[in-house]
Input
Amino acid sequence: MNRLNKKRKQFIFVSLIIPVTLLVAFVVFPAVDLFRMSFTNWDGYSPESRFIWFENYVSMFQNKDLWLSLRNNAVYFFVHLLMIIVELAFAVLLTSKLRAAKFYKTMVFLPYIINGVAIAYAFSYFFSPINGAFDAILSAAHLENLIRNWLSDEKIVNFVLSFVSLWRFSGYHVILFMAALQSIPQDIMEAAEVDGANTWQLFRYIQIPAIMLMVDFVLFDNIRGALQVFDIPFVMTAGGPGYASSTFTLYTIKTAFTFSNFGLAATMAVAMMFLIILVYVVQNKIIHGIILKDRRNENG
Amino acid sequence: MAKRVVTQAVKQIICLCMVVIVLAPILLTLFASLKTKTDMAVTSPLSPPGLSNITFENYKEVLTNKYLLLGFKNTGIILVVSLFFNVIFGTITAFIIERFEFFGKKVIVALFFVGMLIPTFVTEIARFRLINSIHLYNTLGAPIIIYVASDLMQLYIYRQFISGLSVSLDEAALIDGCSYFRLFYTIIFPLLAPATATVCIIKAITIINDMYIPYLYMPKNKLRTLTTFLMDYANAQQGSWQTLAAGIIVIMIPTILIYIFFQKYILAGIASGAVKE
Output
């Protein structure tokens, strides 16, 4: 037994050493290093950097452009949050008795797998003031007076970009909701139908409670996604005009790689990490707890 | 009966609206890519090119760009090497975490979990220094090592799959004197093939579509990937939508093809990777 035990340990050690080392070196260490960098004034290339206590934290909180960027993240968050209702409705629709359901399922997820940079350019064309299809649609509907500079008007640019983000990511949530709905045992649904439950009652009393954990995950994914919006504004507007369509991540990256202020950028990254972990803990402990408690009470 | 027909019709109309919204930006780009410059000026962006006016010049221009070829090559190399290591490390890590109890296991599981929670984009600020210091900046090694080390979704898919395999198989093999390594490579690894297919397909799409890592770590012209090639190409077109449109369509095709052929694996994997905590 002892020899087997030794061999077992050997196997575990040899197998895990590389993946764990890679994880520690390229994921855990950089995350920890961000904390250290956030207390320095490192510029990205000098060998030397100075320890400057909380200066970066103070200037982060005083940075108006960063707050503006964070407000833009909030636009994505609320637009996607409202869309969750539609996504849920689509998931119910696509799992109901529907002809060509398979084709529609393929279509709903298609945007998610398409190259994000390519689609960002395609939408730049769609909303372009010259030859733009969206303006052409408005003209065809005799709504010429609604035409705006979709990507350079500060007031609407974030909503236009959020729409592109909706187009691209909504299908992911629909697929997740569908998977959860399909895991509900069919006989429960049928029994309720025989008892005379209508579609709304099925939804409210069987489907919704059964998929609460997935709703929970989608809400977390939405916050995480909204905080990290990057490539759509990066490709379509570069955060402009000015910082009108900048986001927290975009601004952080700019601070590091354009303004060579890695110390301040690291501070922002720490803030972002803190926000995501805070949201995760709040959601996991509080919301998760309530759902599971409800479920236990119902069963008990 | 009539009510059922009406319900079905309403459902179909809603779904068709969705299909139109999904396909519109792609189709409109396709239309533009087949038009000549003068055609662009005189026709509506909503109308397809007239049959006699269709041109393939825009495509010819993209496809003969030597950086597109390089993009295919670089993306291909990154893809194959990253997937290879992801599968090797992913299967064995998931197997050990699922089947063995050992000292420090909790710490390792926690590390992998924290790794998934760390925000991706902003971490590069610290990783950039590390990649520089090991001289991987401006090499294909930078994206490869980052994809292998930091994208951890395969662990969820593999762990879930392994938890469904019977333990008696391992036991029988071990009693027969099979070593742990042989057990893993001759029995477990082949059984994981369906999960491996899912992992490879989903990761291939993620890697092909990734803009950020190659953009940040490989500014050198020769190291263009498909996605960063398109960014350069777009900047060079300066508002010539019909040529850019052809570039957009060419870059979209690889992942769309993967999706059409392997849809089943993708949809199953996406859902199983999400909620298993």
Observations:
- Residues 19-55 of chain B form one domain.
- Chain B has a mean pLDDT of 89.
